[in-house]
């Protein structure tokens, strides 16, 4: 009988921890309110980045979502663990799937960053736009720059 208890507890351990020793990380909902949307029926690309990701490259995010616009603001949600993040958003007005830029590298389409950071002469760094998500501050707002 003892061997069955031992085998049962061993089975519970492997199911809980996983065969590869992975642990489960608790996540909570991060809500991002995006404002200053000027055109509807276009796509917003919203990317979340962690330290070490290629921020703000609009195709090198940690997690992302594509949202069709239908008003002057949109709300998106991500499930994320506690940590430091930065958000970059682009509004694809011509439907080509990328953020178009002018000769000097400045975006020709609306964009935005967490902390409502407004770049001057170069792209922002992760530290310019980072915020700490600790479940208490579950909503951030980003105003698009056009």
**Helix proportion range:** 10-25%
- Find the structural class using helix and strand composition: alpha+beta
**Overall mean pLDDT score?**
85
Could you say how many structural domains there are in total? Answer: 1
Strand content: 25-35%
CATH architecture: Sandwich
Characterize the structure shown.
The chain has 146 residues and is α+β, with helices and mostly antiparallel strands. The chain is 14% helix and 34% strand. Strands 2, 3, 5, 6 and 7 form a 5-stranded antiparallel β-sheet that branches. It has a 3-stranded mixed β-sheet with strand order 4-1-8, with no helix packed on it. It is globular, with a radius of gyration of 20 Å. It starts with a helix and ends with a strand.
Concise account of the structure shown:
The protein is of the alpha+beta class and 146 residues long. Helices cover 14% and strands 34% of the residues.
